[in-house]
Amino acid sequence: MIKLYQFEACPYCAKVRRKLAQLDLDYEKIEVPRERSKRTKIKELSGQIKVPVIEDSDGTVVNDSAKIVEYLEEKYA
Prior knowledge:
Elements: E1 2-6, H1 11-22, E2 27-31, H2 40-46, E3 53-55, E4 61-63, H3 65-76
Parallel strand pairs: 1-2
Antiparallel strand pairs: 1-3, 3-4
């Protein structure tokens, strides 16, 4: 299952959620702290602290909403 590291108010995260819904993909939302200094998990995964970040079931990690949407379209569309 895809894990989406995000927070609800983020418009870039909303873009990714829309694409996941459009492709009818199951995913787990993982809320990250709004305080950037506390985003240790996504820093470990992607090397940066910005959201959104996805972790696919095969271990692929993608950050940046445009790259995530492109990845989802290529793999699941």
